[in-house]
Specification:
With 944 residues, the chain is an alpha/beta fold. The chain has 25 helices and 29 strands. The chain folds into six domains: 9-203, Four Helix Bundle (Hemerythrin (Met), subunit A) (Up-down Bundle); 237-312, no CATH class; 340-437, Beta-Lactamase; 442-478 and 489-512; 521-671, 2-Layer Sandwich (Heat Shock Protein 90); 691-774 and 781-943, Rossmann fold.
C-alpha cells in the first residue's frame, strides 16, 4: 500500500524567514529615506523662516531710519535706512530662490509683496524729502497722512502668513518623523518575532519529519510482513514475471494452491505475448493429471514486470454446469407450459419468459430476456399485460380475468392474469406474471351465445305459432271441436306453456351467468308483492290440492326493500311452485315475513318430506333434483332454485333453507331494508303542459332538444344515463319519454324491454330519437334528427291477449280501416297473427324480409308496424330509418325471440334514425306522436 509522503515544512519555514528578513531590510531603508526627506523639508522651512525674519528686520530698519530722520533730521538715521534697503533686496532674492526650489511662496505672493514694499519705500523716501524741504511740522503731517503704517501692516501680514505655514510644516514633519520611527520599530519587532517563530517551526518540522520517517519505516516493515502473510493465506497461487520473462512464485509452494511456475510458464508467456490485448489478460488452464481447472489472470505492475494469479475454479465450474443444467430444466418446464409466463424486475426488464409468451411477438425467449419494453420491436401490443406492476412491488396480488390484446399475427387473444411479487431480498423485488389463454373459451362462449340466440329464435318462433294456435282453440276463439278433442287441446296447450317455461328458464340462467339480465331496483312493499304472488299461483296450488297461507307480519315491522318487482315475482313463483310440488295433497304452504336489524327475512314453509342430507350441498345447482324418478310426475327442470339464488344475489340478498327429513323444508331469503328517505316532489308544471323525460347522453343535443320541446309547450326532464332515467321515473310523474339510440351505460333494447315489463310503464309513450351530430362547418345551431315511437317489446312466444290489447290501443283513434305492416320471416306466425287480430277489422300486410318490407313502406303508409329483429336478410331495426321518414311515422311494436340485444353485439336500435330534419320539424313530429296517445295510456297515468 502506497503511503502519502509527509509535507516538508522546514524548507518552507526557512524560505519564509529569509523573505521576512529581506522585507525588514527594505522597510528600514524606506524609514531612513523618509527621515532624510523630512530633515531636508525641515531645513528648507528653517531657511525660509530665517529669510522672512531678515526681511522683516530690514523693513524695520527702513521704518526706524525714516522716523528718526523725520523727527531729528539727523543724517545718521539715514544710514540705517540705507542698510535696510540693501538687506531687503538681498533677503528678497534669497526668498525667491527658496520659492523657486520648493514652489512656495507663489509668484503671486511675491507680486503682492513687491508692490506693497515699493509703495512703502516710496512713502519713506517722500517723508525724507518733505522733511528736508518743508520742516518737521509738514513732515510729521505728511508722515501721518501718507499711509505707511497700513502698508507696513500689510507687509507684516504677508510675511507672517508664510512664516506660519513654514512653522506648521515643521511641526507636521516632526510628527511624521516620530510616527515613522515608531512604525519602523513595531515592524522590526514583529518581523523579528516571526523570524524567530519560523526558525522554531522549521526545527519542529525537521524533527517531525524524522519521527514520520521512523514510523513509515516501521509500517513498511509491518506491511511487508502482512503482505507476506496474505500471500501465504490466500488459496490462489501468485507469480511474478520479470523484465527478462522469468517466472517465479510469490506464494509458498503447495500442491493444493496451483501449478508450479515451470508448468504454467508457457501459458503466462503466451498471455504476455498477445499483441494489442487489453489488461487484465486471462485464460483457463487445465491440469491434466488432477483434472483441476485454473483461471489465470495477468496484469502489469508499471515497473516493467508483471504479476499473475492462478485461481482454482474446479468447484465453481461444477456449480456453473449445475446451474446451467437447472436453467435448462427451468427453460424446458416453462416452455412446456402453454400458459404465458414472464418475470420483470423493478426497472421493467424481462428476466425470464417462456416460448408461449414470446410467440405473442413472433420471436424466441432469448430475444426478449434481459431487455426492456422499449427495446423490443412491436412491444406496444404487450402493454395490456403489464398494467399494475408498480403497485405490486409493495406487496399483494393482482388478478385480471379479462385482458384482450392483438398478437403479432393479428389475432385477438383473451387472457386471465395473475401477478405476484417475487421478493429476493429487502431491496430486490420482481413481478411474476402467469397469463392463461382463454381465447378458445371466449370463442366457445361467443359460439354458445350465438347458438343460444339462434336456438332461442328457432325454438320460440315455432313455439309461438303452436302456443297461439292451441290457445285460440282451447279458449274457443275459433269454432270448437268435439268434446273428446277439447281435453287433448288443453293437454297440448298446457305442455306448450311448460315448454315455454323450460326455454325461459334456460335462457334466464344463461343471461344470469353472462351478466346480461337487467334489474330495475325500486322501493317496494314486500307484503303486497307476496300477496300478489300467492294470488297468481292459487290455481296451480289448487291443482295439487295444497292450501296457501300468508302469515301477517308484526304491525310495527318495516317490510319495504329495494328490489325489482318482476324478478321478485319470479323468485316467489319458483319458491312457491317448488313448495307446492313437494307438499302432500291436503297440505299447506305458508309464507312469513320477519323484519330485523340485519334486514328483511321472507320464508316459504312446506309440509313435504324434507331435503335428503346427501342432496343439500347440490340443491342450488343447475338441473339438480333430489328424486329423479319423481321428476316427471311433479314437473320442473331443476333450474328454478339456481335461477332464484342468482336473482336474490343480484338484488344484494342471500338465500338458504332449513330442512328436517319428514318435517318439511323452509326456504328463506334475506334482503337489505330500504333506507328511509323523503320522497322527492316533482316541480310544479304550468297548466296544459306535459312532462317529457329526455334520455340522451349528449348534453348539448339534449339541451337543444329540450329547448325545441319548450317551444312546443312541454316541460322536460334530462337524463344522461339509463340509471338517471330510472331515478327520474321513480321520482317524477312522466307522461312521455324520448330515448337515444345509443346509451352509455346500458343497451337500449334492454332498457326498453325492462321498461315495458313493468305495468306502470306498459303504455308509456316512448320515442326513439336519433340526433345527428353537428358538423364543424355548420353554425346555424339547428337540431337535426328524427324520431320513431316504440309502443311495446313483445318477446316470443307472445300472449295473444297482450298483443290484441296493444294493437287495439294503438289503432283506437283511426276512423278508417287501419293498415298494419307485419315484418316476420315465419309464415305460420304471420297467419296466426292475422287470425288473432281478425276481429279488429284491420288490414294486415306481411313481409318476410327487409327487402319486401322496404318495398311495401315505399308504396303506401301504415298506422302500425310490428317488426321482428331477426330476419333472413338483416336486422329488423334497419327499417326504422325508413319508418321515421313517413309523415307521420307509424308506431312500432318489436316482436322478436330476443329478450334483449346481446351486449357484445351491435345495438339493435343504434341506427334507427338517419334522416335529417331541422328543430321545428322534429318538434312538430314529436308533438304529433304525443298527441296521438292511446286511451289506455291516459288510464294508466290516471291510476299512477
Amino acid at each position: 500500500m502506497h503511503t502519502r509522503p509527509a509535507i516538508r515544512w522546514h524548507p518552507f519555514a526557512f524560505v519564509v524567514a529569509f523573505m521576512l528578513l529581506v522585507a525588514l531590510g527594505w522597510q528600514g531603508k524606506r524609514t531612513q529615506e523618509a527621515v532624510l526627506q523630512t530633515n531636508q523639508a525641515v531645513s528648507q522651512s528653517l531657511e525660509t523662516i530665517t529669510a522672512i525674519q531678515a526681511i522683516r528686520s530690514a523693513l524695520q530698519d527702513i521704518e526706524t531710519g525714516t522716523r528718526g530722520f523725520v523727527i531729528t533730521a539727523d543724517e545718521a538715521y539715514l544710514d540705517a535706512y540705507a542698510s535696510g534697503l540693501i538687506e531687503l533686496e538681498a533677503h528678497r532674492r534669497q526668498l525667491q530662490e527658496f520659492a523657486d526650489a520648493r514652489g512656495y511662496p507663489q509668484q503671486r505672493w511675491f507680486e503682492q509683496f513687491d508692490s506693497t514694499a515699493a509703495e512703502r519705500l516710496t512713502i519713506a523716501a517722500s517723508n525724507i524729502r518733505v522733511r528736508r524741504e518743508s520742516g518737521l511740522a509738514t513732515a510729521a503731517t505728511h508722515l501721518h497722512q501718507a499711509g505707511g503704517k497700513q502698508l507696513m501692516d500689510r507687509l507684516r501680514e504677508l510675511l507672517d502668513g508664510v512664516e506660519r505655514r513654514e512653522r506648521q510644516q515643521l511641526t507636521d514633519a516632526s510628527l511624521a518623523v516620530r510616527e515613522t520611527i515608531a512604525h519602523s520599530r513595531r515592524v522590526a519587532l514583529i518581523g523579528s518575532l516571526l523570524v524567530a517563530a519560523l526558525f522554531f517551526a522549521a526545527l519542529w518540522a525537521v524533527r517531525r519529519n524524522l519521527v514520520t520517517r521512523q514510523a513509515l519505516a516501521r509500517q513498511a516493515q509491518a506491511g511487508e510482513a502482512r503482505l507476506d502473510a496474505l500471500l501465504q493465506t490466500i488459496p490462489d497461487q501468485l507469480y511474478a514475471i520479470d523484465a527478462r520473462q522469468q517466472v517465479s512464485s510469490l506464494s509458498q509452494p503447495r500442491s493444493i494452491r496451483g501449478p508450479a511456475p515451470q508448468a504454467i510458464e508457457p501459458l503466462l508467456l503466451d498471455l504476455l505475448a498477445q499483441p494489442d490485448a487489453d489488461y487484465p489478460r486471462q485464460n483457463i488452464w487445465c491440469e491434466v493429471a488432477s483434472r483441476r481447472m485454473f483461471e489465470v489472470r495477468l496484469l502489469p505492475t508499471g515497473l516493467g514486470d508483471h504479476l499473475a494469479i492462478a485461481r482454482d475454479i474446479t468447484e465453481l465450474q461444477r456449480n456453473r454446469d449445475s446451474l446451467q443444467q437447472q436453467q435448462a430444466f427451468l427453460r424446458k418446464v416453462v416452455d412446456t407450459d402453454e400458459n404465458l409466463i414472464f418475470v420483470r424486475d423493478a426497472h421493467g426488464r424481462f428476466l425470464l419468459c417462456n416460448t408461449a409468451f414470446a410467440a405473442l411477438l413472433d420471436c424466441q425467449p432469448q430475444h426478449i430476456e434481459q431487455r426492456r419494453l422499449d427495446e423490443l420491436p412491436g412491444a406496444q401490443r404487450l402493454l395490456p399485460l403489464l398494467q399494475g406492476e408498480s403497485e405490486l412491488l409493495a406487496g399483494g396480488e393482482l388478478r385480471s380475468s379479462d385482458v384482450s390484446l392483438i398478437d403479432a399475427f393479428g389475432q385477438e387473444r383473451w387472457l386471465q392474469l395473475v401477478k405476484r411479487p417475487l421478493r429476493l431480498s429487502p431491496s430486490i423485488c420482481h413481478v411474476v406474471t402467469v397469463a392463461v389463454d382463454i381465447s378458445l373459451r371466449r370463442r366457445m362462449e361467443q359460439m354458445k351465445t350465438e347458438f343460444i340466440s339462434t336456438v332461442s329464435h328457432e325454438l320460440r318462433t315455432p313455439l309461438t305459432a303452436i302456443r297461439g294456435a292451441l290457445g285460440m282453440l282451447a279458449s274457443g276463439f275459433v269454432a270448437p271441436g268435439t268434446a273428446e278433442a277439447q281435453p287433448l287441446l288443453e293437454i297440448a296447450h298446457k305442455n306448450s306453456e311448460r315448454l315455454v317455461r323450460l326455454i325461459n328458464d334456460i335462457l334466464d340462467i344463461e343471461k344470469l351467468e353472462a351478466g346480461r339480465l337487467t334489474f330495475d331496483l325500486q322501493l317496494c312493499d314486500v307484503r303486497a308483492l307476496v300477496a300478489q304472488a300467492l294470488h297468481d299461483i292459487e290455481p296451480y296450488a289448487r291443482s295439487f290440492d295444497v292450501q296457501l297461507q300468508q302469515v301477517p307480519p308484526d304491525a310495527a315491522a318495516r317490510v319495504e326493500a329495494n328490489l325489482d318487482p318482476d324478478r321478485f315475482a319470479q323468485i316467489m313463483a319458483n319458491l312457491l311452485s317448488n313448495a307446492i310440488k313437494h307438499s302432500p295433497a291436503g297440505g299447506r304452504v305458508s309464507v312469513d315475513l320477519r323484519s330485523g336489524a340485519d334486514g328483511l327475512e321472507l320464508g316459504v314453509q312446506d309440509q313435504g318430506p324434507g331435503i335428503p342430507e346427501s342432496f343439500r350441498g347440490r340443491i342450488f345447482e343447475r338441473f339438480a333434483q333430489a328424486d329423479a324418478s319423481d321428476a316427471r310426475r311433479r314437473g320442473g327442470t331443476g333450474l328454478g332454485l339456481a335461477i332464484t339464488r342468482s336473482l336474490v344475489e343480484q338484488m344484494h340478498g342471500s338465500i338458504g333453507f332449513d330442512s328436517q327429513e319428514g318435517r318439511g323444508t323452509r326456504f328463506w331469503l334475506r334482503l337489505p331494508l330500504a333506507t328511509a328517505s323523503a320522497p322527492a316532489l316533482a316541480p310544479p308544471a304550468a297548466a296544459g303542459q306535459s312532462h317529457i323525460l329526455i334520455v340522451e347522453p349528449d348534453c348539448a343535443a339534449a339541451a337543444r332538444l329540450a329547448e325545441t320541446l319548450h317551444e312546443q309547450g312541454y316541460a322536460t326532464l334530462l337524463a344522461a344515463t339509463a340509471l338517471d332515467a330510472r331515478d327520474l321515473l321513480a321520482e317524477y310523474r312522466v307522461q312521455a319519454l324520448t330515448l337515444s339510440p345509443a346509451l352509455a351505460d346500458e343497451d337500449v333494447g334492454a332498457f326498453l324491454q325492462g321498461l315495458r315489463s313493468q305495468p306502470a310503464y306498459r303504455h308509456l309513450p316512448v320515442l326513439i330519437v336519433g340526433l345527428q351530430p353537428q358538423r364543424r362547418d355548420e353554425d346555424d345551431g339547428q337540431l337535426r334528427g328524427g324520431a320513431v315511437r316504440v309502443i311495446d317489446w313483445l318477446p316470443k312466444p307472445v300472449d295473444p291477449a297482450r298483443l290484441l290489447d296493444v294493437v287495439n290501443a294503438c289503432l283506437t283513434e283511426h276512423p278508417a280501416r287501419p293498415r298494419i305492416l307485419h315484418v316476420e320471416d315465419d309464415q305460420d306466425l304471420r297467419l296466426l297473427l292475422a287470425r288473432q287480430i281478425e276481429p279488429l277489422d284491420i288490414e294486415l300486410q306481411g313481409a318476410a324480409s327487409l327487402a319486401e318490407a322496404r318495398r311495401l313502406l315505399g308504396a303506401q303508409s301504415y298506422q302500425l308496424a310490428i317488426v321482428d329483429l331477426m330476419l333472413p336478410d338483416g336486422d329488423g331495426s334497419e327499417l326504422f330509418d325508413q319508418l321515421a321518414q313517413a309523415v307521420p311515422p307509424p308506431p312500432v311494436i318489436i316482436f322478436s325471440a330476443l329478450d334483449a340485444p346481446v351486449h357484445d353485439s351491435r345495438l339493435v336500435l343504434r341506427q334507427l334514425v338517419k334522416s335529417r330534419h331541422d328543430g321545428r320539424e322534429l318538434g312538430a313530429l314529436i308533438q304529433h306522436l304525443l298527441h296521438h296517445r292511446t286511451p289506455a295510456t291516459e288510464a294508466d297515468e290516471d291510476d299512477a
